[in-house]
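wait is this the right file?? whatever heres the structure
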């Protein structure tokens, strides 16, 4: 594409170009620049991309998009907001790939990864070629690629969509984080369905207030387009935030829920350690579902996925079969079973609400003691720390506080922040996570349930910015073998 053509979406930026070079790639990272690149300077949280302009020119950049004039001899196109410009240019450069696919965005505090995986399974069973973008990885069909963010920045994101199209993907499920919405990473994405799971406290370090957090989530629904498009907003009727989200969109709204009136409902729910059974009522049709996923929160996730699939024209029998076949999602209520006479569950609960949901679920069928191993991430919302600690001691018979990615913070201080929410004697602290897991397993008795919360699928412990290999499931498995066989 020629530079002049690339710049067409920036219609209010009048730039006089003396030359019109061929553009082979767009880049937001100077380290990846080669001949024929247009470099977009982003002022980040850590460094300022504008500082790499000279380096970019040396490496072969043919033009630069920037928010201020720069001392280089290649054209500099000045924009008010380079992230906004980047989203527009990326969509244009890659040919607006999301207009050619069925794109389902899932937002909410908890359940995004789970719901996207449930929809993925349903779509695959409905013979769709799927793509998935989220916390654990991005996936094209069954091929996984590592990612840094749950929702990537607009430039890599649009490139990924283009790659998906080239690989004949027709349906994409994407987790849309509140950070991504607020930072404009999904600008230009043509969502067909937007799903809301729930809104509870998290990320207040970034959003500052629950209102601002809701506002960020709302951007997904506001982005759905005009009233008479065939787009759909899928909302959780039991979550009060849905009322506000419904106001923010002009497209059709389809609701799911258990307690309130909804288009897609679950009734007669029965939860056992082996799975969950419920009657699914979808637009008046009733089916009984028996699935392996456990807990009331799993029913919500199944309803959200059902709604998204139904509005995407998948039939109820296909959805039923998929939900019944799904074994679970890695690191979400994942049992570690080495034949021991107690239960070990690894779960990604890292918010108050998710921890409460998981512990409430195990409490419903616990025959003996519940042992909860809980930590809170460093460089993340500090206000959730005492809340998570309180929930752990309220539900568990024994709460062990430990480290979960302290990052740049002092692990002991994180635990101090946690114990501000509880009383002395209600918990023990074992800073080293491996030791905490070992101790819990060593002391476990028959029929106890150990919940190891917070890291789920993660395979590292971030201490001081360095990632050390750490996998709760591996550590638990080794401890069971060491102490219990
Ligand atoms: C706070 C935040 O969101 N930071 C994101 C941001 O990083 P940053 O602002 O620090 O970037 P930076 O290092 O200052 O770089 C600025 C610019 O200079 C460029 N650069 C940098 C170095 C260089 O040599 N040359 C160069 O050109 C960079 O490519 C970039 O364009 O831009 C990066 C690239 O897109 C992101 O990976 C990074 O996410 C970090 C890892 C992060 O932790 N983000 C969290 C808060 C986040 O977004 N989380 C949500 C999920 C939350 C949930 O659980 O729901 C998510 O969607 O991931
Ligand atoms: N619908 C739900 N409501 C409340 N808690 C849930 C729900 N679904 C899952 N959880 C809990 O939240 C944890 C995280 O689930 P999941 O990874 O699906 O959420 P997420 O929204 O993708 O999280 P993240 O923001 O970290 O990407 C699970 O391990 C479980 O404990
Ligand atoms: N996406 C979440 C994951 C938290 C997982 C937990 N293990 C932690 O490190 O706090 C976040 O970045 O806040
Ligand atoms: Mg996720």
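ok assuming it is, sequence goes like this
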């Amino acid at each position: 594409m020629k530079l002049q053509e690339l710049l067409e979406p920036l219609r209010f930026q009048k730039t006089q170009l003396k030359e019109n070079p061929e553009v082979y790639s767009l880049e937001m990272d100077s380290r990846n620049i080669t001949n024929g690149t247009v470099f977009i300077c982003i002022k980040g949280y850590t460094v300022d991309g504008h500082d790499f302009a000279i380096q970019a020119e040396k490496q072969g950049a043919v033009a630069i998009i920037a928010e201020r004039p720069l001392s280089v001899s290649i054209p500099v196109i000045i924009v008010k907001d380079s992230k906004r410009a980047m989203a527009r240019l990326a969509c244009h450069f890659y040919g607006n790939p999301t207009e050619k696919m069925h794109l389902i965005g899932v937002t909410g505090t908890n359940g995004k990864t789970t719901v996207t995986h449930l929809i993925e399974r349903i779509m695959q069973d409905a013979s769709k070629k799927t793509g998935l973008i989220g916390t654990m990885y991005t996936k094209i069909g069954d091929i996984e690629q590592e990612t840094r963010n749950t929702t990537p920045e607009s430039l890599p994101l649009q490139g990924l969509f283009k790659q998906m199209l080239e690989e004949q993907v027709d349906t994409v499920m994407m987790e849309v984080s509140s950070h991504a919405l607020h930072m404009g990473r999904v600008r230009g994405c043509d969502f067909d369905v937007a799903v809301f799971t729930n809104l509870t406290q998290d990320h207040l370090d970034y959003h500052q207030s629950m209102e601002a957090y809701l506002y960020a989530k709302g951007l997904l629904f506001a982005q759905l387009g005009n009233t008479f498009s065939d787009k759909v907003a899928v909302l959780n009727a039991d979550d009060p935030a849905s009322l506000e989200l419904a106001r923010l969109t002009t497209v059709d709204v389809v609701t799911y829920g258990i307690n309130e009136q909804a288009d897609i409902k679950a009734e007669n729910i029965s939860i056992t350690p082996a799975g969950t059974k419920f009657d699914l009522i979808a637009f008046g049709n009733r089916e009984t579902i028996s699935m392996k996923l456990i807990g009331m929160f799993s029913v919500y996730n199944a309803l959200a996925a059902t709604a998204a699939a139904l509005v995407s024209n998948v039939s109820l029998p296909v959805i039923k079969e998929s939900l019944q076949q799904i074994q679970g999602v890695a690191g979400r209520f994942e049992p570690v079973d080495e034949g021991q006479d107690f239960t070990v569950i690894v779960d990604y609960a890292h918010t108050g609400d998710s921890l409460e949901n998981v512990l409430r679920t195990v409490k419903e069928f616990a025959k003996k003691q519940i042992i909860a191993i809980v930590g809170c991430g460093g460089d993340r919302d500090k206000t959730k720390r005492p809340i998570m600690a309180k929930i752990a001691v309220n539900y568990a018979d024994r709460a062990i506080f430990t480290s979960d990615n302290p990052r740049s913070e002092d692990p002991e201080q994180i635990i101090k922040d946690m114990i501000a929410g509880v009383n002395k004697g209600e918990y023990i602290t074992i800073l080293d996570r491996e030791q905490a897991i070992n101790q819990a397993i060593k002391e476990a008795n028959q029929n106890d349930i150990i919940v190891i919360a917070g890291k789920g699928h993660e395979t590292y412990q971030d201490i001081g910015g360095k990632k050390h290999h750490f996998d709760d499931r591996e550590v638990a498995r080794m401890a069971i073998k060491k102490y219990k066989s």
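The two ends are 64 Å apart (CA to CA). so i think its the right one actually
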